[in-house]
Amino acid sequence: MSAEMTGLWSVDSGTARLNGIRCSSCGLVLFPPQLYGCPACGAGPGELIPAALPAAGRLHSFAVVNLHPSHPTPYTILEVELDSGPLVRALAASNFDPRINDRVEGHEAQVDGTPQLVFERARVPLA
Ligand SMILES: [Zn+2]
Q: Cα(22) to centroid of ligand 1, in Å?
């Protein structure tokens, strides 16, 4: 388990997970967590329970950033449709050449000296 356990993501036994929430009333999965209640069924915040979401899904879209005021460029931002439902934006691994609909998975990598969750093509293709 990494020091990121209390953040938005964690790594447990080599598997990265996003720390999301699930509505215990209707089952909707949300990421990032929020405390306002379920936007689908209106259940209160007490119905939202922590849910460890596998960092795996399908590449929905991506953008290459070539100009940024404070971050070294270029880098690629992905939109990943997680298998559990939410659409999340994530950093691409530096060596990943993305294609729409790729199976992708997240893992921890050092980016500019900081542990980050980065996504790249899944090593073992899933269904
Ligand atoms: Zn709900």
A: 8
Is residue 117 within 8 Å of 91, Cβ to Cβ?
Answer: yes
Give 74 Cα–ligand 1 centroid separation in angstroms.
Answer: 39
Residue whose C-alpha is closest to residue 44's, from 30, 24, 18, 29: 24
Distance between Cα 81 and ligand 1 center (Å): 19
| C-alpha span between 65 and 27 (Å, rounded) | 35
Q: Is the pTM of this model over 0.70?
A: yes
Q: Please give the chain's pLDDT, 127 residues, in tens.
A: 333 346 899 998 889 999 999 999 999 999 999 999 999 999 999 999 999 999 999 999 999 999 999 989 999 999 999 999 999 999 999 999 999 999 999 999 998 889 999 999 998 655 5
CA of 26 to the centre of ligand 1 (A): 4
13 CA distance to ligand 1 centroid (A)? 31
Ligand 1 centroid, distance to 44 Cα (angstroms): 8
10, 2 in Cβ contact below 8 A? Answer: yes
